[in-house]
Amino acid sequence: MRGAAAAAFRTLQRGIPGPLRRRFAMDGASSNGSEPLPAPEGSPRAGETLISEGQATILFPSANEVFYNPVQGFNRDLTCAVLTEFARLLLQPKGIQVVIPGEDHADAGSPQPPEEGDGASAAPPRVAKAGEVCEGGLRVLEALAASGLRSIRFAKEVPGLRAVVANDCSARATDLIGRNVAFNGVGALVTPSMADARMLMYQCKADREPFDVIDLDPYGSPAHFLDAAVQAVSEGGLLCVTCTDMGVLAGNNAETSYSKYGAVSLKGKFCHEMALRIILHSLDRRANCYQRFIAPLLAVSADFYIRVFVRVFTGQAKVKASASKQALVYHCVGCGTHHLQRMGKATAHGNGFKYGAATGPPVGPTCEFCQQRHQLGGPIWAEPLHDVPFVQRVLAALERSPQRFQTQERMQGVLSSIAEELSDVPLYYTLEGLSSTVHCNTPSLLQFSSALLHAGYRVSLSHACRTAVKTDAPPAVLWDILRCWVRLHPVKRERLTDTSPAARILAVEPTLQASFAIRADANPSSRKRGLKRFPENPEAFWGPKARAKAGGGISPSLQEKRKQLQNKRTQRSQGADPEPSPCKRHKEGRCLQEGELPLAPPRPGTASCPH
To answer: Which residues contact 224 (CB under 8 A, 6 or more apart)?
Structure first.
């Protein structure tokens, strides 16, 4: 190991605990430290394939020994885009300019000019390019690297990086990372590591060598990594966290959600946004234990997972405000109306704030609209999910380099939708959810949004659901608009029971006369431009993959389960159609055949039954 690669390697290894350290020499030490690695080859070994994504090409075993999911390509593209703008944000005050190949530099951001009289005014600005070690740049940890694809993409596509640690606790995965790092020629930036991710982060905290960026993308829940991550990230550093346990976060297992994230999830129409707010609450709660707090930059719900990007800061005074940023959710089981109850309150007091307990609850014993009971969920993060100026920076960067990412169109659509969301309105309603409650046909998105705008309220869509409506209108206004809609499109009230939510809601006369005339501002810009906000899956079975296992392959139980569930509604049995069941008269001996007398005796088979 020589030159810059050796220097970067020695620097990074100081943050890795000795008992768990696995050293890799880029010129040939293997995963067990005794046998030399074979030289990088232009073609994969037997049982391996080449996978290309972005500017990286990796060797990957055909067996399921190391995890890889092509669905997460959007996740990795988005992370590279966010990390680039984060590097630009942090390095610009240091006089370092981040440069992307092919980017139009008209508005790319340049180092801040020094003030007059500054002795450093004569120093030329430094330029950070992708694939090069940047002195004073960012230290990045991919705590659960698997094949190392994400770390290699960081090294080849994100400028302004000083070092990247690609860590995994699997010896097979760490060996593969070392080979892929050498195969892509990024040994000067990327260092493989084999360690328990939590112990590695705790050790870096103890050694006072925090990472500027920590990326957590586990298989399933990241809950047991969060405590170490909020301590091991630097002041103002970036945490990137993925959750794929959406069954837990979306309300199917409320008790598991509480045990992992400290919040009860609800199975409501707003479950995907609530999942984002639960993980943000969990991150902030764990950071508060160490007098730290979070500032979300971006939170995305996509496909079968959620992804959040948050900065972590330290400040005892700011931590006191954390209780007022969390809220409980009261969700009616009948009509789906929801109310939020803040956990604390912050009151202006002189030049500062006075903090105390909030008062409540915001609802009575039963729902005021349908007299059904409430479910109690949360606490959840009740502050904005996104830093809109930062989102606009990422969007502007994508427009300056239109061919940079494979999922560029989807990224622009999702980020544009996020930039248009009402940031101060937690959760949302869905059109089908509201209309199904009163058993009426569904108004169009533009009609319902226009009615809210005519009534004097704000409204936006949501990136988390195609038919979502976010509005600052109270629930009473929403139901008044539905009552006015039912007047124009009547429902069969005789079919409604007196105690049903629909009957109780429609029994009240509306106090608001809604107008459904289409307004121009009801259609957001991203929708007018036809951006890809909710693209269709590019292929069948586009979703989660099986967990990697030693030796590869998929467990027989999982294979059998997949075989039973795939195409279960459309698949027919092999061979002839199944034999129809006999009619009731045939079983009773009263089925008349041609030429038979009435009351013929029953026959044992079904082939002779004409019915």
So the answer is: 198
Cβ–Cβ < 8 Å for 90, 98 = no
Write out pLDDT tens, residues 548-575.
555 555 545 555 665 566 655 555 444 4
Q: Check: CB of residue 283 under 8 Å from CB of residue 326.
A: no
Residue 132, both tokens? 């090069």
Burial bucket for residue 133 (CB in 10 Å: 0-12, 13-18, 19+): middle
Q: Dihedrals φ, ψ of 61, to 5°?
A: -70, 140
| Strand 459-462, strand 465-471: pairing | antiparallel
Tokens of 439: 């058993």
| Pair 29, 190: CB distance under 8 Å | no
Angle at 234 (CA atoms; ends 230, 235), nearest 5 degrees: 100
Residue 510 pLDDT level (bands cut at 50, 70, 90): very high
- Strand, helix or coil for residue 467: strand
20-73 confidence digits (pLDDT tens): 343 333 333 333 333 333 444 445 666 678 888 989 998 888 665 565 677 888
Predicted TM-score (pTM) of the model is 0.82
Residue found by looking up tokens 């107008």 in the block: 515
Which residue type occupies 560?
E
Cα separations in angstroms, 131 against 55, 101, 125, 360? 11, 11, 19, 55
pLDDT reported for residue 14? 41
Amino acid at position 42, single letter: G
Mode of pairing for the β-strands spanning 138-142 and 211-216:
parallel
In terms of Cα–Cα distance, which of 536, 420, 464 is closest to 249? 464
Tell me the per-residue pLDDT of 333-381, one tens digit each, with 9 for 90 and over: 999 999 999 999 988 888 888 899 999 899 999 999 999 999 999 999 9
User: Is the separation of the CB atoms in 137 and 91 below 8 Å?
Assistant: yes
Between CA 177 and CA 514 the distance in angstroms is 61
Q: Are 394 and 82 in contact (CB under 8 A)?
A: yes
Q: Please report the DSSP string for 342-377 in residue order.
A: ESEEEEEETTEEEEEE----SS-SS-TTT---EEEE
